[in-house]
């Protein structure tokens, strides 16, 4: 596997900046859902780092469940406008306050597909919390209720986000220099 230093063009969001903003989001969510219970639905795999730090900043009682959706194939850099549900949640969402936790909203197709699926099951409420928002790339309209950072149209990796499934463990968000990256190395 290629050393990420070879293709990291810049650190876009540092570990400190991520943790500070996630603490703010957790406080805001805890305030908004005071007296209620939450079901956090995390989209695998990119959302796991964010979820695990976010829940440590949420003070209202909550459950977690996981869903896996694929929109990109290995090596592909854009969503094809189609999302496939690979793994569904087990929890009954009917009459629950549901908060979808996602790493990044890019074209918007993934979140839109998951929202349609979950809303058909009649939750009490359904909101979206996304760490990153590549707003300039949006192809379908999705409302992001809690947003960590709006970022430019650059391919990013780290903190849950992968480059061909690697580098999710990095504690920061980095920008990839595509010309220096060698897939499959
Ligand atoms: P969308 O369906 O186009 O909104 O794509 C959302 C999914 O694409 C996210 O859940 C990510 O898995 C992936 N994605 C989009 N942009 C990036 C990126 O810059 N780095 C890594 N993954 C990305
Ligand atoms: Mg993802």
Give a written overview of the molecule.
With 185 residues, this protein is an alpha/beta fold. The protein has 3 helices and 9 strands. The chain has helices spanning 15-32, 48-55, 109-119; strands spanning 8-13, 38-44, 62-70, 84-87, 97-105, 125-133, 146-150, 156-157, 173-176. The protein has a 6-stranded mixed beta sheet, sandwiched between helices. A 3-stranded antiparallel beta sheet has the order 1-9-8. Helix 2 (48-55) links the parallel strand 2 and strand 3. The longest helix has 18 residues, at 15-32. It is globular and about 50 Å long. The model has no long low-confidence stretch (mean pLDDT 94). Magnesium ion (MG) binds next to loops.
Give short descriptive properties of this protein.
binds inosinic acid, globular, 20% helix, binds magnesium ion, alpha/beta, six-stranded mixed β-sheet, 185 residues, three-stranded antiparallel β-sheet
Q: TL;DR of this structure?
A:
This protein has helices at residues 15-32, 48-55, 109-119; strands at 8-13, 38-44, 62-70, 84-87, 97-105, 125-133, 146-150, 156-157, 173-176. 20% of the residues lie in helices and 30% in strands. Helix 2 links the parallel strand 2 and strand 3 (62-70).
């Amino acid at each position: 596997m290629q050393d990420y230093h070879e293709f990291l063009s810049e650190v876009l969001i540092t570990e400190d900046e991520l943790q500070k903003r996630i603490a703010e989001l957790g406080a805001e969510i805890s305030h908004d859902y005071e007296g209620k219970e939450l079901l956090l639905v995390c989209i695998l795999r990119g959302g796991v780092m964010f979820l695990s730090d976010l829940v440590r900043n949420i003070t209202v009682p909550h459950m977690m469940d996981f869903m896996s959706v694929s929109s990109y194939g290995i090596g592909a850099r854009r969503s094809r406008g189609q999302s496939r549900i690979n793994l569904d949640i087990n929890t009954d969402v009917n009459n629950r306050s549901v908060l979808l936790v996602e790493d990044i909203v890019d074209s918007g197709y993934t979140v839109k597909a998951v929202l349609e699926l979950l809303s058909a099951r009649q939750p009490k409420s359904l909101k979206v919390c996304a760490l990153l928002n590549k707003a300039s790339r949006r192809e379908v309209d999705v409302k992001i209720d809690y947003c960590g950072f709006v970022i430019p149209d650059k391919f990013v990796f780290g903190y849950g986000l992968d480059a061909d499934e690697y580098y999710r463990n990095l504690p920061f968000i980095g920008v990839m220099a595509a010309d220096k990256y060698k897939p499959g190395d």
